[in-house]
Amino acid sequence: MGSQGDYIVKSKEKDGECKEVSSEGKVYLKETFYISSKKNHVFIVKLTDVGLCLRKEANSSTKEQIIKINDIVGCRCLRSQKKPRGRAACTCSSSVPRDKSRVSVEDDNFLADESDVSAYLYVYAYVFKKSLRNNCRRERTVLTLRFRSYDKFDDNIREAQKWRTTIKRLMLYTGDVLQLKSAISAEQKKLLVILNPKSGSGKARELYQQQVAPIYGEAEIPIELHVTKRANFARELVRHKHDIFSYRGIVVCGGDGIYYEVINGIMEREDWDDVFQNIPIGIIPCGSGNGLARSIAHVYNEPYEPKPILNAAITTAKGKTAWMDLVRVETKAQIMFSFLSIGWGLISDIDIESERLRYMGHQRFSLWSLRRLIGLRTYHGKISYIPASTELLNATSAELPPPNRIKHSISCNTYLTEEGGSQDADGEVITLETANDGFFDTIDRQRLDSFYSTTSRKTAYYSVAGSEYKSINGSIRGDDEDFPDHDKVQDNTSYATSNPKDVQVFGPSSSLPSLMSPVPGDWVVEEGDYVMVHATYQTHLSSDVFFVPSSKLSDGIIWLVIIKAGVTRPALLNFMMGLSSGTHLPDKEHNYFKVIPVTAFRIEPTGNDGILTVDGERVDYGPIQGEVCSSLAKVMVPEKFVKSL
Ligand SMILES: Nc1ncnc2c1ncn2[C@@H]1O[C@H](COP(=O)(O)OP(=O)(O)OP(=O)(O)O)[C@@H](O)[C@H]1O
Hints:
Low-confidence stretches: 1-22, 86-109, 406-501, 641-645
Mean pLDDT: 76
Number of strands: 31
Distance between the termini: 22 Å
Bound molecules: adenosine-5'-triphosphate
CATH topology of the domain at 335-412 and 512-631: Tumour Suppressor Smad4
């Protein structure tokens, strides 16, 4: 290919905000671009396995920047289009330049601008940037490459497509060609998004529309969105989804409670094992606790604040996965599977009793903690456990024993629910724009505005080809139709259930004695009065409770944190104050605080008065036991690195 392509780039960012690189790595494509307004500015653009390397040569100086493959969420080839007269605009028109016709992305409302034979490649990336406080965060960058080497649009678009295809392959490649093939075929599949509009302070719909849907649009991921109508909706949905393998994954927009529903809904399917092996489950933290989302970000060194939803959306769009342990939990009435924690005492009391302050978002936890400290309670009971072996504590995840996937079943409760659809959009972007005379600036700005239009429900979804949502009568409608008013929707979808007691739970069989049998002699047993016992298998219990810093997603370990009665209030206050930084536990052995790595445990409270929680949800008070099932579910995680193609 010659070097006549027209590359128009003018970074609005200051120097040094993209990482400096030497042009190393394998080069797949290379092209020279110019800025029309500055003929002496030449950009050599190389696509390597690291990313898009931009080498600017101007006035005998050169500068290199890179947009890493890991930071790219998608790229699209577009043709400039003009809007015919008399048609209502769905894009913002304020930035339309001087004498130009309105230009926008390909949309049924627009006609191709025949006078421009160029093909445009848009690359959407979210690059790391250091803020003033030295915190790392991701910022949106859009790179536009204009291909106009040829006289015909078809030839130019072919060039642009070549770049697009190669970038997409590099995004999917993890070092295994077979995996690449299956990743390419999975690209056609939809993402099943389950959104709880009541999670957190009740803004999940808006947050999804503002921060998540645009990223799925940029990544060209087709979506099927279900808005929950009531508790256990998500659980029923995944239990009854006959075509579950036609999805590339499930994304939960909500808190840990709704994620728990999805995990347990899958466990109510006979094919639970296949589902967990083939369908990764991601989380967009719209809840009040968000322990899992925070833990995933922590383990992968991904920035969480100030935009946890945006970052999680990127994570779920990129589609990388990792194994996660689940804990099989048994109470007298139920068997369930947990991914976060099991609690008895102080923290569970705060979690459940602060429900009445839900409107406050996660602040409710801080307020109620103070209250519980003043009116401190203790509970009597017996705690038994199997300590984790030294080998397990020192093992890498590759050395862990294979998961126990033998099936068995038992009945438990669930409810029948309905499903709904979607909502409006508004949002913000941070762009590294391309521009020469304002023309390109306009193209992109208009396109973005149409993404974020608060008035047009259509345009909020237009770019996600094949996206669907559930309509009033339960049938699927395309993304170019108006959304129903979901608050008024009466969905006719009905599931063939059932007396809730008849619902069976599958999942791996237990290796523990039944809850009513005594624990084996090799277990450690202690009895006494306790402020709390909290069994945890993630780093964070909520976004600001850094509970077990050493925990991993799949280490095969449950961390038992025990606080005995008799602890002083100042010591407890220290504990509470240190929770957000992970400095809550004493360094040395302590009479009242203990952290014990175990593989199974049992709590037997005395009396009937207290709160037990599993993943932040209240369960029957009484004996409870849990055992780790290592690497049982696949969870969506951020990128770490890219290998050579
Ligand atoms: N449409 C709905 N109306 C009422 N409750 C719902 C609805 N959909 C789901 N739920 C229930 O809401 C509960 C809490 O939801 P979720 O976990 O999403 O938010 P949260 O409690 O604010 O966050 P976290 O669990 O992280 O603290 C879930 O247990 C779920 O059963």
